[in-house]
């Protein structure tokens, strides 16, 4: 069970949630929706116990499984194998270690006391499913698109998307009474999403989920919490039913707001016309002023229309005909190479889509091309006049402790006013410019990272899942802007609509390294790769 009572959440000195109250019982499946920056992730951090509420109280009964939007694993977890990290979600790794210690103690001294301790620990381990734990962990991880061989690797050797799936597998394996999931479908292909839908459909506990995946919300949700301007409004039914109900509410509230504003204006004008006249009229004007004051106290605001943004990438600086050349590139993580003998080049203005299954080395390739990591062997050469910009799927370029403007200045020497205007183009305007970037929502971090690319005036962009966490209007605007931009791009994405809008020129199949011309028949494979 999960209950929020009069909950207020503060981020960067501003309240993003005010006096919210709701309850989740076992079997409830609730979607939390709202625009980027509305405060969804911040509220989930409070509910998950990661942040402290400004006011109010959150009560949790039973075990809580909380998936952050950007999971951060402890150093010990990163050194562990992926399978070990999943099994640790239920504490079975520690239980197995305890059994082994008790077994060794019996070898040293087979006393009745030591044998009984071992028997009790072994019986508890069996009852908790310890002996079937590996098979269950493999089943969940496989459902989320993690092959068996990837589970045997250290977490440190996995890509950012794979680490996120390992963390989700750990949470699902733990068998929590309450699940709080922030964008659980990020980095999942079609099959993995379908598996997750089925898992959540059969889940008996309470579920609170934030997702821009409308299919997930429509299939798994029975209630919706709409967050806007700090206020929570609850709707019963699926996401589609919520959309219809919300549309009717917005129309009704808009009419009321217009009617109230019109009446306030009429009474205020009438009161003003009576001032300075007879004493009786002056008293009437005072009474009207009091009535207007009460109406203003009770006045509602018209629902804010979903803000549309218009994004424009600047013309890329001129560069040579060939912007990038890759020869005999090899990369591994202590075992067999993830990819080897990779050869290709990229022409000026060309768009290359990188396709491959999870773990095929797509992110590893982009990190090498961006100079973040090094290849085991091979060569990467940029052409004459090439300026490279890299969008990392895990927002590695966002530094907590520094505000948005600081990040923009790092990419451009333009005046602050121009940089703030540029950030505003991505919907990052007002006080948010001075907010700690570490407290931004996932969607806002995505927008900031893209704004940094624009500020950098590049002619080659490396884009690794650039649409994750974006609300639909932002995603459409950014996809349209990139489709019109004439610079060169190397793109990794599971978003079919984004790739369709981008219309790549060629496709690079990983890990084989085969190149082919793009055709729209490949769109069916995008979400699966």
Your description of this structure?
The protein has 529 residues and is of the alpha/beta class. Strands 5-6-7-3-8-9 form a six-stranded mixed sheet, with helices on both faces.
Q: Mean pLDDT, nearest integer?
A: 85
**Spatial ordering of strands, largest sheet:** 5-6-7-3-8-9
* Uncertain runs: none
Number of domains: 4
Biggest sheet details: 6 strands, mixed
What fold name stands as the CATH topology of the largest domain? Answer: Rossmann fold
| Residues in helices, as a percent range | 40-55%
Given helix and strand content, the structural type is: alpha/beta
State the name of the first-level CATH class of the largest domain.
Alpha Beta
Q: Output the CATH homologous superfamily of the largest domain.
A: P-loop containing nucleotide triphosphate hydrolases
Number of helices: 19
| Head-to-tail CA distance between termini | 37 Å
Question: How big is the Rg?
Answer: 28 Å
CATH architecture term of the largest domain? 3-Layer(aba) Sandwich
Question: What gross morphology would you assign?
Answer: globular
Classify the beta-strand content into a percent band: 15-25%
Count of DSSP strands: 18
Short précis:
This protein has helices at residues 40-47, 75-79, 82-87, 92-108, 112-127, 133-143, 148-151, 160-174, 190-202, 214-220, 239-274, 279-298, 362-369, 404-409, 416-425, 442-456, 472-484, 496-502, 523-526, and strands spanning 2-11, 14-24, 29-33, 55-60, 64-67, 178-182, 206-210, 223-228, 231-236, 322-332, 337-347, 351-355, 377-382, 388-391, 460-464, 488-492, 506-509, 514-517.
């Amino acid at each position: 069970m999960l209950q929020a009572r009069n909950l207020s959440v503060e981020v960067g000195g501003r309240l993003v949630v005010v006096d919210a109250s709701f309850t989740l019982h076992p079997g409830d499946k609730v979607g939390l929706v709202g625009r980027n920056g509305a405060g969804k992730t911040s509220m989930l951090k409070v509910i998950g116990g990661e942040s402290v509420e400004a006011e109010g109280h959150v009560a949790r009964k039973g075990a809580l499984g909380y998936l952050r939007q950007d999971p951060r694993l402890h150093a010990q977890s990163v050194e562990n194998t992926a399978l070990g990290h999943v099994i640790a979600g239920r504490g079975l790794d520690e239980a197995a270690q305890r059994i082994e210690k008790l077994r060794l103690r019996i070898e040293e001294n087979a006393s009745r006391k030591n044998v009984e301790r071992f028997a009790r620990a072994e019986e508890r381990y069996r009852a908790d499913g310890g002996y079937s734990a590996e098979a269950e962990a493999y089943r969940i991880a496989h459902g989320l698109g993690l092959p068996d061989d990837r589970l045997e690797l250290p977490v440190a050797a996995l890509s950012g998307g794979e680490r996120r799936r390992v963390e989700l597998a750990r949470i699902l394996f733990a068998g929590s009474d309450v699940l709080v999931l922030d964008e659980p479908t990020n980095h999942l292909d079609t099959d993995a999403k379908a598996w997750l839908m089925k898992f959540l459909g059969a889940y008996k506990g309470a579920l609170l989920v934030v997702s821009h995946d409308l299919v997930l919300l429509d299939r798994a949700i029975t209630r919706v919490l709409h967050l806007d301007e700090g206020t929570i409004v609850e709707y019963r039914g699926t996401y589609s039913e919520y959309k219809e109900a919300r549309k009717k509410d917005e129309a009704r509230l808009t009419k009321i707001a217009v009617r109230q504003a019109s009446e306030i204006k009429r009474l205020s004008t009438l009161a003003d016309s009576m001032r300075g006249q007879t004493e009786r009229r002056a008293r009437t004007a005072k009474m009207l002023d009091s009535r207007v004051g009460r109406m203003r106290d009770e006045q509602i605001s018209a629902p804010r229309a979903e803000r549309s943004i218009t994004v424009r990438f600047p013309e890329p600086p001129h560069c040579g005909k060939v912007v990038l050349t890759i020869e005999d590139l090899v990369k591994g993580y202590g075992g067999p190479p993830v990819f080897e003998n990779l050869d290709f080049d990229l022409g000026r203005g060309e768009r290359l889509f990188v396709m491959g299954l999870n773990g095929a080395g797509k992110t590893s390739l982009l990190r090498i091309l961006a100079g973040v990591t090094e290849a085991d062997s091979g060569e990467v050469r940029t052409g004459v006049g090439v300026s490279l910009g890299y969008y990392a799927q895990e927002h590695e370029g966002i530094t907590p402790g520094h505000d948005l403007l600081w990040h923009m200045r790092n990419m451009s020497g333009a005046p602050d006013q121009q940089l703030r205007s540029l950030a505003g183009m991505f919907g990052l305007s007002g006080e948010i410019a001075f907010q700690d970037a570490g407290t931004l929502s996932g969607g806002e971090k995505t927008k900031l990272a893209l704004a940094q690319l624009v500020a950098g005036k590049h002619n080659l962009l490396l884009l690794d899942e650039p649409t994750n966490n974006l609300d639909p209007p932002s995603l459409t605007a950014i996809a349209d802007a990139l489709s019109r931009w004439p610079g060169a791009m190397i793109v990794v994405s599971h978003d079919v609509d984004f790739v369709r809008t981008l219309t790549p020129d060629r496709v690079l199949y990983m890990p084989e390294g085969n190149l082919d011309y793009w055709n729209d028949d490949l769109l069916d494979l995008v979400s699966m790769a």
